[in-house]
Amino acid sequence: MRSIETGAHSQPFIDNRALMLRAVDLGKTFTLHGQGGVRIEALTGVSLDVERGECVVLVGPSGAGKSTLLRCLYGNYLASRGSIAIRDAANDGQPVSLTGAEPHDVLRLRRAVVGYVSQFLRVIPRVPTLTLVAEPLLSRGVAQDEARARAAALLARLNVPERLWTLAPATFSGGEQQRVNIARGLIAEHPLLLLDEPTASLDAENRDVVADLIVEARERGAAIVGIFHDEDTRHKVATRRLELRPPLRQ
Amino acid sequence: MTPLLSARALSKQYGGRNGCRNVSFDLYPGEVLCIVGESGSGKTTLLNTLALKTAADGGSLHYTATHGEKLDLLALSEPRRRLLMRTEWGFVQQNPRDGLRSGVSAGANIGEPLMAVGARHYGDIRQAATQWMERVELDASRIDEFPAAFSGGMQQRLQIARNLVTAPRLVFMDEPTAGLDVSVQARLLDLLRTLTSTLHLSVLIVTHDIGVARLLAHRLMVMQGGEVVEAGLTDQVLDDPQHPYTQTLVSSVLPV
Fold first, then answer.
1. Rounded to an integer, what distance in angstroms lies between the CA atom of residue B111 and that of residue B88?
2. Do residue B121 and residue B201 come from a single domain?
3. β-bridge pairing A19-32 and A38-51
4. Pair B117, B195 in one domain
C-alpha cells in the first residue's frame, strides 16, 4: 500500500477520535478561459471541523458558496486554496488529505466514508429503481439479497410506491426521483454525509421522513454537513450552523 | 494496491508529429479509465500504443500479470505478447466487423478465443457460447448464424462476448458505441457498465462522447494535440474543468 500523505493533519485526528472532517482556510476561484479568463471568487477563507454526531447546517444568501463548499468537500470541485482532511475508514482511521489526493484514493473514500446527496438524480438508462438504490451496498460487498431487502425497506419508508421499484426512474416525477436519490445516498450509512438541499422539491410529509432519516444518521454517529432551504428541517436536524457570506467580487 | 498498467512519458509519433506525447498514468484493478478528445487528438494512437498494436517511440510501460509478475511491455517478446493478448487482454474495435470473423458462426466467434487458450470439449465450448450470448442479450437460438445476419448493435454485443469469454483482466475499447443509434447505445452502455463492475474488469476506453465517459468511467484523461491536458476523477473533470480545452469540450455538449 502506498503511504498516504497526512502531514500536519494527523495530530488533531489522533487527539480527537470524533473528528471526521477538517477543512482549513478553503477557497475556490473559477477561471473561465472561454470568456476572456474571467475569474469568479466563489468561496474564501472557510474553516470547518465536523465531529461524529454533529450536523452542521450551512446558511447564507444565494451565491455565498454553500454548494461550492459541499462540492469541494466531496472532491467534485478542486479547492483552489486551503486544505481538506477526512478520517479514513481504513488505515486505523488516519486522515486522508483530499486536496492533492490521487483519484484512486478519492474513489475509495467515496465508497467507504463520504456520501453525497444532491437535489438531482443522475438517471442511468434502463437501471431499475431497486437496483439503483441497492448498488452502493453491493459495491461495499453486501450480499445481493440483503442489499435488495434494505433498499426495499428504505424506498417504502420514503413512500416510493412499490409498483415503481422495477422501473427505471427516468419517467418519475421530480419528488419521486429525489426520494430515490436520497435512498441511494443514505443506504450505505456513510460516516460522513454531505447533503445539498435533499428536501428541495418534497411535500411536507416526505420532508419530515427525510428529516427523521437524517436525525437517525446523526444519532448513529454520522458527521453531517448540509444545506436545507426550509427553516423547519434546519431546526430539526441541525446541531450547529455555519454562516457563509458571498466573497467580495472585483 | 499495485497498478495493473503503468505508463511513464509514453510517446508515439508519426514522422515527428501527431501521435501522442509524454503520457503518464496508473490504471488500478477494477478501474475504468476514459480517454476523451476530438478526432486527431491522438487518443486512438495512445490506445493502440498501450495495447501494443503499434510500437512506442519512447517512455516506459509496465503491466502486472496474474501472478504478480511485473512485465516490461515495451521489451516483451512476440510469443509472450501474443499469450498476454489471448489470456489476459481483450480489444473491442470501433467497427465490430474488424473484431469478428465473418466466415464463422456467432457461436464460433465466441468459442474460438476459448479454444485458443486450450478448451477442447465441444459441448462445453458451445455451452459457454450460449451463456455469453444470453449475457450480452442476444437470442441464443441464433448461435449458428453468421455475424452478417446480425444488426450493428448486435454485432457489437457479439464482439464484446468474444472479448470477455476468456475472462480477461484488462480490456481496451475504441469508441465501442460510435455508429450505433442512441437507443442501442443506451443498452450497450448499460451492459458495459454492468459487466465491468460484476467482472471487476479494468478498462481503457477511447471515446469522443462525454455522456459515455460520464456513465462508464471512474477517471478521465483529456487529450488535445497529442498530449494529455487534464486528468482526474470523471465528475471532477466534467463539473470543474481546469484546462481551456476541457472547458470548451464540456460546454459544447448540447443539453437534452
1. 16
2. no
3. antiparallel
4. no
Please, which residues 1-20 of chain B have a Cβ atom closer than 8 Å to chain A? 1
Whole-structure pTM value:
0.90
Domain boundary among B167, B194, B216: B167
At A7, the pLDDT band (50, 70, 90 cuts) reads low
As a whole number of angstroms, the distance between CA A199 and CA B103 comes to: 58
Q: Which of B2, B233, B242, B247 to substitute to test the interface with A, most A CBs within 10 Å?
A: B233
Q: What length does chain B have?
A: 256
State the ipTM, two decimals.
0.89
| pLDDT at residue number B46 | 95
Q: How many domains does chain B have?
A: 2
Are B119 and B216 contained in the same domain? no
Range of the domain at B10: 1-88+169-256
- For an interface test with B, which of A80, A107, A116 has the most B Cβ atoms less than 10 Å from its Cβ? A107
Does the distance separating the beta carbons of B244 and A1 come in below 8 Å?
A: no
Residues in CB range of A168: below 8 A, 6 or more apart: A123, A124, A125, A126, A127, A128, A129, A132
Q: What's the grid cell of residue B14?
A: 508519426
Q: Which CATH class is domain A6-242?
A: alpha beta
C-alpha cell at B212: 459515455
Same domain for B19 and B83?
yes
